[in-house]
Amino acid sequence: MSFQAYLDTIEKKTGKIPQDLVDEAHARGYGPDTPAAEIVSWLADDYGLGRGHAMALVHVVKNGPQISDRHVGTDGMHRDVSDRLRLDGVAHR
After folding, report:
1. Domain boundaries, given as residue ranges, for the chain
2. pTM (2 decimals)?
3. What is the torsional sign of CA 22, 92, 46, 9?
4. Hey, which of 46, 49, 72, 88 would disulfide with 92, CB 3.0 to 4.6 Å?
């Protein structure tokens, strides 16, 4: 599953676009120095997200929407079409 597919599924599960969750995380004080387990725990407790989906959002909270280009245009399991994730929701594509 691509990073983008994880974020799209998070939107379906929570009813919130990824940017809303990133903004909420930052409002809670989560950022680059926050342990991943702390963010994963919050997402599990408040939104019922599993570890895999939560870790995709952890990446965005800690690093922003840019991802490594090593998966872009490949045929691997975590392939994406762009090295920049869309956080504005499925309806905006």
Report:
1. 1-66
2. 0.89
3. negative
4. 88
Provide the 3-class DSSP secondary structure of residue 64. Answer: coil
Dump pLDDT digits (tens) for 37-77.
999 999 999 999 999 999 999 999 999 999 887 767 777 66
Paired tokens of 7: 């974020």
CA neighbor of 26 nearest in space, from 14, 42, 15, 10: 42
Alpha helix ranges (H) inside the chain: 3-14, 18-27, 36-47, 51-63
Report d(CA 10, CA 57) in Å as an integer: 9
Contact of 20 with 67, CB cutoff 8 Å: no
Radius of gyration of the chain (CA): 13
| Nearest to 50, CA basis, from 3, 1, 8, 13 | 13
Mark 11-44 as b/e (b = at least 16 C-beta within 10 Å): beebeebbbebbebbeeeebeeebeeeebbebbe
